[in-house]
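Page 37, continued from 36.
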């Protein structure tokens, strides 16, 4: 009997990463949900879609629930896809020279991390977005192993482009990450025209052409989230600290949205939710006159850049600071499914699985423990240390390509985060953990199989 290759064995063992994910799924069936989840499930049930949350994601929810009319179908598919991708990461790591036991075992450990398992069975756009990022990550690992074979092969660039196209479809700001990665690849591999054409073509075909087709074929209200709404916290930061920076005309525009006291008192650099969801805050005013408020945001940001940068650092500090501020709330999947008219409620398929995982869930929740559990900073710093080690090993430097994807997503998420929420960091968190086995090659560079 022919012995399987190391990458094949790593893939098969890596499929065991599905075990902890399935334990959480049967214990917390049909999964974790927020009001956003209920809203998208309602759109799928009505077959009427809005693009506030990416319509492509809501339509995938609709498609999955045609096969099984339950939100548990959505979370089950997420578990299956996550399992396959983690096994594929294990395969790529083994192909690079990481021992099979470490490549596969580490992916099982990643899946068993409660924050990964819980988020994987949450109905959020951030989950398929992170899965698309993970697919792109696996293709960049393959490129690092053998750049000639990747670029000269028929399918490598196409697969990478398809993954990046899906990144664009599952979050409205995904194009920022994709643009960073595309520019880096085009500059770094500008002589690989035969590979760049299918790569860029797949990105455009999936991310733009397919996205536009979906908006036309399905009953989608085309209006998306208004950018001026996303950055209201930047405006509030300036008003809170420098109210004299606004002229009377701009003050009137602020008053049209909410009383000035609301702009000042409901501002928090950690979370835009108290301001944006205050009963006196009328976001419809911004949506009705978007160009005016985009101009207001642009003038405010450019004219008060130090204040805005300070606000942005505070908002994004959870990516880098482990400690939980005493005066802030860190958002993560809630224990209860919100009240809803769709009949969704928690109905564990296994009481034993629920009891065990519930104890883990409760253990991870106290604010004094968030530095170790939900806040992503420790994992991110571990990932940064891994890629710094790679940078100092000349032979390993092709591995900076998958690290570049993580960096692009980190810059995107940190620069646009409206609140301190784990879901915004999920992609960086997961890929940082998945990168840690590369430390084996940093310590033992002679084991690396990089062509």
């Amino acid at each position: 009997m022919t012995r399987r290759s190391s990458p094949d064995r790593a893939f098969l063992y890596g499929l065991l990463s599905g075990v902890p994910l399935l334990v959480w799924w049967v214990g917390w069936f049909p999964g974790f949900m927020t009001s956003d989840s209920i809203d998208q499930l309602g759109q799928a049930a009505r077959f009427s879609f809005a693009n506030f949350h990416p319509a492509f994601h809501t339509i995938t929810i609709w498609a999955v629930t045609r096969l099984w009319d339950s939100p548990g179908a959505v979370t089950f598919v997420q578990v299956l896809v996550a399992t396959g991708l983690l096994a594929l990461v294990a395969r790529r790591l083994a192909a690079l020279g990481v021992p099979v036991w470490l490549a596969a075992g580490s992916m099982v450990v990643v899946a068993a991390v409660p924050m990964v398992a819980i988020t994987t069975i949450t109905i959020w756009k951030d989950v398929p977005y992170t899965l698309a990022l993970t697919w792109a990550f696996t293709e960049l690992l393959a490129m690092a192993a053998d750049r000639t074979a990747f670029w000269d092969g028929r399918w490598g660039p196409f697969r990478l482009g398809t993954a990046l196209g899906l990144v664009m479809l599952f979050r409205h700001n995904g194009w920022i990450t994709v643009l960073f990665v595309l520019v880096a690849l085009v500059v770094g591999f500008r002589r690989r025209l035969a590979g760049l054409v299918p790569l860029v073509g797949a990105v455009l075909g999936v991310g733009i052409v397919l996205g536009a087709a979906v908006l036309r074929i399905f009953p989608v209200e085309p209006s998306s989230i208004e950018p001026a709404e996303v950055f209201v916290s930047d405006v509030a930061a300036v008003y809170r600290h420098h109210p004299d920076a606004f002229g009377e005309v701009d003050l009137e525009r602020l008053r049209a949205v909410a009383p000035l006291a609301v702009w000042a008192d409901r501002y928090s650099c950690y979370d835009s939710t108290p301001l944006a969801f205050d009963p006196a805050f009328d976001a419809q005013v911004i949506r009705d006159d978007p160009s005016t408020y985009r101009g207001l945001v642009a003038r405010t940001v450019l004219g008060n850049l130090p204040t805005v940068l300070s606000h942005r650092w505070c908002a994004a500090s959870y990516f880098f600071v482990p400690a939980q501020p005493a005066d802030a709330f860190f958002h993560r999947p809630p224990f209860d499914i919100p009240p809803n008219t769709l009949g969704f409620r928690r109905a564990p398929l296994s009481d034993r699985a629920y009891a065990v995982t519930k104890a883990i869930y409760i253990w991870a929740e106290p604010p004094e423990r968030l530095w170790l559990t939900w806040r992503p900073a420790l994992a991110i710093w571990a990932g940064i240390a891994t890629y710094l080690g790679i940078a100092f090993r000349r032979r390993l430097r092709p591995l900076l390509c998958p690290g570049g994807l993580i960096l692009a997503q980190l810059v995107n998420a940190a620069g646009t985060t409206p609140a301190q929420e784990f879901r915004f960091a999920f992609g960086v968190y997961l890929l940082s953990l998945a990168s840690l086995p590369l430390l084996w090659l940093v310590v033992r560079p002679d084991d690396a199989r990089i062509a």
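Residues 71-96 form the longest helix (26 residues). Flag for discussion at group meeting. Strands lie at 49-51, 220-224.
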